[in-house]
Amino acid sequence: MEIEIHVIHYLVISTVMMFCGIYGFFTRKNLLALLISVELMLNAVNVNFAVFNRYLFPDRLEGHFFSLFGIAVAAAETAVAIAIIINVYRNVKQVLTDDITDLKG
Amino acid sequence: MSISLQEIVFYIVGACIVVSSVLAVTTGKILRAATYLLFVLFGTGAIYGVLGYTFLGAVQLMVYAGGIVVLYVFSILLTRSDKDMKYRQSRARLVAVLLTVTVGAALVLFLVFTNGFALNLIPQGVELPVERIGRALIGTGKYEFVLPFEAVGVLLLACMVGAILIARKESGKSKE
Amino acid sequence: MDYTILILALPALSFLLLALAGMKMSHRVAGIVGTLSLAAVTVLSYATACSYFTAGRMEDGLYPTLVPWNFEWLPFTPSLHIDMGILLDPISVLMLVVVSTVSLMVHIYSFGYMKGEKGFQRYYAFLSLFTFAMLGLVVATNIFQMYVFWELVGVSSYLLIGFYYTKPEAIAASKKAFIVTRFADLGFLIGILIYGYYMQTFTFTPSEERLMQAGMVLPWALGLMFVGGAGKSAMFPLHIWLPDAMEGPTPVSALIHAATMVVAGVYLVARMFPLYVDFAPHVLHAVAWVGAFTALYAASVACVQSDIKRVLAFSTISQIGFMMVALGVCTDADPHGGGLGYMAGMFHLFTHAMFKALLFLGAGCIIHAVHSNEMEMMGGLRRYMPVTHITFLVACLAIAGIPPFSGFFSKDEILTACFGFSPAMGWIMTAIAGMTAFYMFRLYYGIFWGKENRELHARHTPHESPLAMTFPLVFLALVTVGAGFIPFGRFVSANGHAYDIHLDWGVAGTSIVVALAAIALATWMYARDRQPVADMLAARFSRLHRAAYRRFYMDEAWLFVTKRVIFRCVSVPVAWFDRHVIDQFMNFLAWGTNAAGESLQPVQNGRIQAYTWWFLSGIIVLTAVLLLF
Asked: Where would I find the H helices in C200-307?
């Protein structure tokens, strides 16, 4: 017996996740909320890797491991990002993007 | 045409993910957003399980749900961001963002639907054995991943050091 | 003859040494370095000349053309390449001797003349540079090497004229000399390029085949080259720089503006002579007429100038005109046919270099003694300066063409060649020779006889110059006396075969009589304390006198042409175009860039979300584009 879930269904879910993340990234102002949006996007990408691996190359493991490492990288990124955000908060007592425009140089 | 348990689970989880994602980026309270993110991550873990990648699902739950979300909650509380997030958005900006997002989503979905994926059958109940994962993870041959594994190890170490260095209180300079 | 490379290397090295380390040396050491290297060069030149001419002729009766040293410098095509090298043939050996002799005399003389001057070392460095350039010019193996050294000569002349760089007249004069000769050199360069393009070589002997193909192009190229030569050799109307160049130190005038550099144009024509006479006889005859007119013009101006160096300058122009005429009247390369002028011109170049250098050095002694260039300040100097007086007289007799001085022989050959060409030319040149005798003796009497300026001399008694200055005078005077007896035609002639000079007593007698008459006239007019005849003539023909004194307004004419015509009609519109069109275009570009930057600047607002939004939009657009097309 085999599952008959069309691959498109997975992809629709991941697309919705992805664009929710993008929407959030643009509309939120709190840096932590921004980071949450980024996590959503990363998650969507990980799902896609796993799904394509499973459906297209069931004998191999590249996508699977890419997801695995993606999770690790996401964890690392989150740790550093949160450290930075805390530092920003300490300096400007705010974590809103509108306050952080020093990138302008 | 019978509907298997997996399918039922998948569709429930899928609906859950979609709803939670939308709520995670629209809710006005950041703690709630973090909670909805947690749901999404749970759902993703379940999808990995449905795909047969139970190990990946377990990692997802442990690292994301167990570690990262907790980190979020802590930092939200630390930075006192736990308040109303309904900032005023300029209308033009909102329109631009919505337009971009819808156009982008439409484009991606168009691609997905017109690509003509034919393979929709996967071996049922075949779980990826952890032994294989372990061997692949520390093997050095083709399609084996000890090098990225080591690289990720170094990365995690570096980010740990970096995070500590960035976030710690500068005792010497704090008096400035 | 490998040592000939030293002839070029020594002055160059001495220039480098003096220019780089000169300030560390005392005046004495610097002068000795320069003079010793030049003495070595002179010895080497004489040795070269001796061994070259005693080595004998080849079987066909010609002296060989030797290239003891050559290297390919800039190759363009297999046949067209610019070389640097040393070419020895009769005229280049002759020029080596002339240049090194005069240069050595000037070096020695300058010891006395420039004593205690500020920049003494710099002066010797420039002298070395000039000598190097001039020697490089005369031994050039090809026309392009000649051009390179030609310009180097121009630069060193510029530096030496402007030696007293705190004097505004000197600066103006050096600038004028440089610009005028540069302007003429433009013609030279174009001529060279045409020549190189059509002959596929820069050497002086293109292949027969190319020469046949060239047709009308070759005369044009040669004519343009003559324009360059006319600039350097101060031919009318490009002569205007030479009188002003007298602002430089007098020994420099003797070296550059009398004996060596100004004959570079003559040398150029002589160098290209086989091509001129075979392929462009009309150009050659044009050269003759330009030379004749220049000689006449300069002689008439020289008759009324009061500055002794100016008189000598115009006499130089006139004598170079003689040489040009001599080359120009040739109709054939056979000296027994129509080619006598070539030999005569080169002979005159040689003798003129000696006695004109002598005249200038003598003038230098006089100026040194009375501290002025003006004839009014002089008069009666024969009692104070006997050596200068005698040597100056020798030179005057030589230039006037009185036997047995050298000028007589060379000028006589020129006149014979002119009569051979056309009687009109012969009589014109005889008349100019008479004028030469007249103005030279006017100068001579004005300086050494006539009314003494006692008031001035009482305050500052003129004195004879030191040995360093009188030695070159005596040496050059001896050369001037003896040079006429050199069997010059045996060494240099138009077709290379030996030619025995024999005087045509009809021509010689006429020219002697004319010269003696002119001298007598000058004696009658100027050898007295008062000069009623001269004053009367000047008053009678006051307009002519003033015009001649102002050099027939040639400078004004040039100023008119440059200022009124070229500046107003060409430069002003060009400047307007530059300022309003090109500059505005550039301003527009700058403004446009600036405006674009200003308008794009708000995009960089430092908001990470805005950046990512642009990024994402770009991705979407690109994807859409890829999908659509």
From this structure: 208-214, 217-232, 241-244, 250-254, 264-271, 273-279, 281-302
Contact B107 C613 (CB under 8 A): no
For B84, phi and psi rounded to 5 degrees?
A: -60, 130
Mean pLDDT score across all residues of chain B: 83
On whether any CB of chain C is under 8 Å from the CB of B95, the answer is no
Using 50, 70 and 90 to split pLDDT, how confident is the model at B125? low
- DSSP β-bridge partners for residue A2: B123
Residue of chain B whose Cα is closest to the Cα of A4: B121
Residues 6+ apart with CB under 8 A from B125: A1, B52
Distance of CA C570 to CAs C513, C562, C563, C573, C576, Å? 52, 10, 10, 6, 10
Q: Which candidate in B79, B117, B137 is best for mutational testing of the A interface (most A CBs within 10 A)?
A: B79
| Gyration radius (Cα) of chain B, Å | 21
Contact state of B104 with C620 under an 8 Å Cβ cutoff = yes
* pLDDT band (50, 70, 90) for residue B176: very low
d(CA B111, CA A15): 11
pLDDT classification of B36: cutoffs 50, 70, 90: very high
Q: What pLDDT does C214 receive?
A: 74
- What pLDDT is stored for residue C2 in this prediction? 76
Burial call B67-78: b when 16+ CB within 10 Å, e when fewer: ebbebbbebbeb
Are A25 and C609 inside 8 Å of each other by CB? Answer: yes
Closest Cα partner for C28 from C132, C130, C116, C126? C116
Q: Which of B100, B108, B113 should we substitute to test contact with C (largest number of C Cβ atoms within 10 Å)?
A: B100
C607 contacts in chain B (CB < 8 Å): none
Find the mean pLDDT for residues A7-11.
87
The reply to whether residue A97 touches residue C616, judged by beta carbons under 8 angstroms, is no
Residue identified by tokens 């007429």 is C289
Is residue C215 within 8 Å of residue C208, measured between CB atoms?
no
- Per CB-CB distance under 8 Å, the chain A contacts of B124 are 1-3
Q: How far is CA A3 from each of CA B3, B124, B126, rounded to the nearest angstrom?
A: 9, 6, 11
The pLDDT tens digits of the residues spanning C328-344 come to 888 877 767 677 888 88
Q: Which of C605, C612, C616, C620 to mutate to test the interface with B (most CBs of B within 10 A)?
A: C620
pLDDT, tens digit, 9 for 90 and up, residues A51-64: 988 888 888 888 89
Separation of alpha carbons C144 and C188, rounded Å: 10
The first and second tokens of residue B12, run together, are: 């429930």
**C-alpha distance from B172 to closest chain A C-alpha (Å):** 15
Residue C55: helix, strand or coil by DSSP?
Answer: coil
Residue A47 banded pLDDT, cuts 50, 70, 90:
very high
Q: What pTM, to 2 d.p., does this model score? A: 0.67
Pair of tokens at residue C518: 């002119």
Contacts of A100 in chain C (CB under 8 A): 606, 608
Q: Is the pLDDT of residue C589 over 90?
A: yes
Q: How far is CA A74 from the centre of its chain?
A: 7
What is the interface pTM, i.e. ipTM, of the complex? Answer: 0.88
Q: Tell me, what amino acid is at B64?
A: Y
Task: Report the top-level CATH class of A7-99.
Answer: mainly alpha
Give the whole-angstrom CA distance, residue C85 versus residue C64.
Answer: 16
**Which residues from C are below 8 Å from A37, CB to CB?**
none
For residue range C20-51, list pLDDT tens digits in order.
887 888 888 888 888 999 999 999 999 988 88
The interface residues of chain C toward chain A in range 594-613, judged by CB-CB distance below 8 A, are 604-609, 611-613
Helices (H), chain B: 5-26, 30-51, 54-59, 69-78, 91-114, 130-138, 146-167
Q: Is the pLDDT of residue A48 over 50?
A: yes
